[in-house]
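So, can you check this record?

>
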Amino acid sequence: MAVSVPVAGVDEAGRGPLAGPVVAAAVILCDDGIAGLDDSKRLSAGRRAELETQIRARCTVGVGMSEPDEIDRINILQATLAAMRRAVDALEVAPDHILVDGNKLPDWHYSAEAVVGGDALHPCISAASIIAKEVRDRMMLAAAKNHPHYGWERNKGYPTRAHLDALREHGPCSLHRRSFAPVAQSLLNL
């Protein structure tokens, strides 16, 4: 009888936005898996929410993040890798192997491999993609209530025309990444 070894999938959400944290998730799937997993970008918001509930109920999940001040201090790539380390550290079970979506691996002691397009290839990475996106989206919806003029309830901090217009008109807030060019430019225009 084969014994399954814990393999964690790791993915992030929020590298491209001008505001908010970058969030990473690590997921060790349950032995019987979760039906319908896919890259979070290919799923409707309703389907992602349903899958998040199933994943959290049946799988081992860890979440880590890097806030905008850390992103500005160490750059978005290093902040993403730090969030990934935190997500794996938050798992209740140490994985034997890790599959990371993308082409870079955090500096850690785990057996790991980077998989470009892994969120569409490996269900454990798909699950991590869903968790990371759902966590980050909820954070940006909550932040939108305190900063309504940026339209984060619609754009989640990404550089849409409405967000860029609001940034020019109102300037950045504490959740903006000042090292990102449109935000830095808005500071010059104040």
